[in-house]
Amino acid sequence: MSAFNQQALDTRLERALRETRVPGLILAVAQSGKPPLARAYGLQDGKPMEPTLPAMLCSLCKPLTAQAFLVLVQEGKLRLSDPADRWLPCDPRITLLHLLTHRSGLPAKFPEGLRAPTEAERVKQALTEPLLSAPGASFLYSNVGYQALGRVLESVTGQRPDKFIQTRLLEPLGIRSYFVATYLSPTEQKRYDSGAASLLTPQRFDKATGRHVPVRDRFASLARDAWGGSDVCGAGCMSAPDFLKFMLSVTPAQRQLIRRNATESYGPGWMLQGGGLAHTGTGSGETHYALTRESGVSYVCFIPSSNDTACEKLLAAIQSAVKYLP
Asked: Degrees (nearest 5) of the Cα angle 219, 221, 223?
């Protein structure tokens, strides 16, 4: 991308940040046949934002998890039609595809008050709850379903999910920024929460004052409340340029497999949106969006804000800005 195009992009997005009063933005963009571009706007702790700051991916973890299964399918180690009760104590009608496309009938979240010493036990307890619908009958976005997939991934590969994702999917791409917040030691969690370690700090929007407030206890509270969970559906962390690199690694054959198995515009790990594969990730103080196309512009943006209205306006400005890049 030429310096002129970068300047036009910067002007559009800096204006959008002023208008929305969002603290900042990280954007990574790739155009067919051109080098990727990573830009950062705004301040964090009084310093200019860095484009390589990792962020908690939230639900952008789901494409990573789904990609692990697509690789195993292509290697002949499992099929999307396999019943999940081969690995899990669940309803025998639930298939891996049901879990990957949020059509398993499992609830969106773990039941209130559910506690277990390990993530496997936590999932096992959740699977004893009655299904909300028959498998395959309806769509319900389910973190429980993706946590169940993580336990399947462990059984099939003999590795913790993040280790398999790192070694099989990310290291061959040269990606080093990936880690899972809930697997950090308490000391490391405190370093990230305090800002002593580099991380995009989420910013909770306070409606009463109209200001953004840094969320400083995200890792510690997640580890406490989730008991080591969310490894495959929320607590993974990575930089925007690296997530863009991962998205671009999804092969045409894998894209076709995702589209072929999509129902209600959601395939394994991805929404069919904007002429490509897309996903969002939201948490306590952050809003992320990613879109990858086989041709044209692909991008990922990290926004440290929980202000839904402002983030929607900012996303519209980002989409407009990258859409018209030559």
From this structure: 70
For 202-285, list the strands marked E by DSSP. Answer: 203-206, 211-214, 236-239, 266-267, 270-273, 276-283
- Catalytic-labelled residue, pool 59, 104, 177, 305: 59
pLDDT tens column, 211-233? 999 999 888 887 776 654 578 88
CA torsion through residues 82, 84, 85, 91, sign? negative
Q: Who's near 275: CB < 8 A, 6+ residues apart?
A: 293, 296
Q: Retrieve residue 188's tokens.
A: 């490391």
pTM of the predicted structure, to 2 decimals = 0.95
Q: Give which of 175, 176, 109, 98 is closest to 139, Cα–Cα.
A: 98
The answer to whether 59 is a known catalytic residue is yes
Q: How far apart are CA 169 and CA 164, in angstroms?
A: 8
Measured in whole angstroms, the distance separating CA 93 from the mean position of its chain's CA atoms is 27
Which stretches within 21-126 are classed as H helix?
61-74, 96-100, 119-126
Q: Phi then psi for 319, rounded to 5 degrees?
A: -60, -40
Query: 61-115 pLDDT, tens per residue?
Result: 999 999 999 999 999 999 999 999 999 999 999 999 999 999 999 998 877 666 6
Is the CB of residue 277 less than 8 Å from the CB of residue 250?
Answer: yes
Tokens (6 digits) for 132: 């909300």
Is residue 64 a contact partner of residue 169, using CB atoms and an 8 Å limit? yes
- CB contact set of 122 (below 8 Å; sequence gap of 6+): 110, 114, 115, 116, 147, 227, 229
Tell me how crowded residue 88 is: count the other CB atoms within 10 A of its CB: 19
Q: According to the model, what pLDDT value does residue 80 have? A: 97
Q: Which two tokens stand for residue 134?
A: 């028959």
Paired strand residues for 211? 206
With beta carbons less than 8 A apart as the criterion, state whether 312 and 297 touch: no
Identity of the amino acid at 249: S
Half-sphere exposure of 100 (CA within 13 A, CB side): 30
- Distance CA(124)–CA(116), nearest Å, equals 9
